[in-house]
Amino acid sequence: MKKKKVNLRDLNKTSSDTHKRNDAHNQSSAESIGKFKVYVPAIFSFVMLIIGIAMDYFDVAFFKDWIRIVWYAVAYLPVGFPVIKEGWNSIKNGDFFTEFLLMSIATIGAFAIGEYPEGVAVMLFYAVGELFQSAAVKRAKGSIKALLDVRPNEALVYRDNNYVSVNPETVAIGEKVQVRVGEKIPLDGILLSEKGSFNTAALTGESKPDTIAKGEKVFAGSINLDGVIEIKTTKEFKDSSITRILDMVQNATARKSKTELFIRKFAKIYTPIVVFLAIALTFLPYFFVDDYVFSDWLYRALIFLVISCPCALVISIPLGYFGGLGAASKNGILFKGASYLDEMTKVNTVVMDKTGTVTKGVFKIKEIKAIGWKEPEFMKYLMAMEEQSTHPIAKAIMDYKADGEDFQASEVSEVAGKGLKGTVNGKTVLVGNKPLMISNNIEVPSETDNIVESIVMVSIEGKFAGYVIIADELKDDAHEAIKQIRESGISKIIMLSGDKDSITQQVAKEMGIDTAKGGLLPEDKLNEVEKLMSRNDGRVAFIGDGINDAPVLAVSDVGIAMGGLGSDVAIETADVIIQTDQPSKIAKAIKIGRSTRRIVYQNIALAFGVKAVVLVLGAGGLATMWEAVFADVGVALLAILNAVRLQKMKW
Prior knowledge:
Layout: H1 8-57, H2 65-92, H3 99-112, H4 116-148, E1 155-159, E2 162-166, E3 176-179, E4 189-191, E5 195-199, H5 201-204, E6 210-213, E7 217-218, E8 223-224, E9 229-233, H6 241-252, H7 258-283, H8 294-308, H9 311-330, E10 333-335, H10 338-345, E11 347-352, E12 359-370, H11 375-386, H12 392-398, E13 409-415, E14 419-424, E15 427-432, H13 434-439, E16 454-460, E17 463-474, H14 478-487, E18 492-496, H15 501-511, E19 515-517, H16 522-534, E20 539-544, H17 550-555, E21 558-562, H18 568-573, E22 576-578, H19 585-619, H20 625-644
Parallel strand pairs: 11-18, 11-20, 18-19, 20-21, 21-22
Antiparallel strand pairs: 1-2, 1-3, 3-9, 4-7, 4-9, 5-6, 5-8, 10-22, 12-17, 13-14, 14-15, 15-16, 16-17
Helix pairs in contact: 1-2, 1-4, 2-3, 2-4, 3-4, 3-8, 4-9, 4-20, 7-8, 7-9, 8-19, 8-20, 9-19, 9-20, 10-19, 11-12, 14-19, 19-20
């Protein structure tokens, strides 16, 4: 029998892959065990509590006196000891009045008056509430981090005539990097290969693959979908788009909203007041009530402490903002802080730039009018002249596809401020604006007088041969964006542009924008926005796309950057970044902000409403420790579940 030849390299690769799978499996198992261990103390206490209550109910003979005390003490310690320890550490750090202290006093007090099951139950439900809170916060943070933390951990760099695998942090600007199918782009750069197809969902929230041509930008974190490609790096790893975005997301939670800051300040004042009121509730009735029983009033005070614990507020409000930030990231919108979620809800005026914001910022041929010539031949004369120019308009003309051989131009010279003059196929050709035609005694049709877009006129052998209209295309969702912004309740939409006023007015009219001004320098835009802000009751949001808009992005109430991946200055200056470059996401950002605020306000109303009712009942002796548990932990759980809804909402 012929033996099959074994390839040692394949064997090593298989062995390596097996080890990786085993490592991944072991890591997954370890994580699962770690997650389960967190719940063990609560499960143990719950089982002990249920058994204890059952033995109390059936009046089991041996379950009396010290055995009963020890049983409930054992049930209490797994969930109670960490809270007491946390409370003690807080006191050592000078923070006396915390929810840990409130829960410790209330539950130890319950043991002191013989209410053992209730003492265990309060601490158990508090511990369960903390677990739910921790899980919800991890989920909210995870939805952000999982979306963005796709930073590659290796790069194949061309060094010493070979591709070597290195840490992306060691790659310098200008080095050549190879990326295989299914791998992540390790650093920002430009594509050296002819073309590439990339999944940019982690960066932009857009699931549709993005096709990039040679010489165009590619961004770290994108996944290569088609063939082995090469890129030339343009930024170091620490400056790559994905690294900066991830850093901003992680730092966003540090920028607290005014609501969060108020609640935290309120809790610091509220908690000591509650403690002193509980002490007063225990001892003051002695002077006013005839049948005063210390244990009864202590029990009421303990109930009062449990009910008044501010954890529902302190937990659910930041969690609401976490949810809003995570939901926005999933939709390709990056808020730099919770405070901007609040500011977005107050916006009543939207000011936008034109080029690159509602238009694509790329010149395209809009119309070709050949007079006395067939269009392909006319365009070959024009392209022969424009081939030697680097102007964006020339680039747009050179994108035209004409069959057959191209024409060649000679003796091409520039006529300052007017255009080009040269010879093509032995014929004198002029390419440029109307003044060029008039200065050469060429009659221009009157129909061109009403054209506001950029126009390139052509004459061949002294006769007007036609013209080409060049225009900046509107983005695909530009009309829908204006419609949705209006539907979201924005009262005023304004366009400010550095482009010609006639073109700006035409675009504004086509899109149904209220007011437009063109021909503005960056400082002119700044002055216009400052005037609006000085006489506006609400908030002014400015949407721009690059370095020239940076001053206005910085000064406006809410600065929104379009195409933040391509503009470093926009990323640094703006408060909100639309990663997909789609203006329709502006309305979505407003809606997410409003949904977040609604959830936060619901949680505040729920916490205060339920606590107020049960506090009155508790002080009057009409509520037991079980109602107190619901007013504290139950409300906290409801608030957490309400906040988590943001992760599931569609806008």
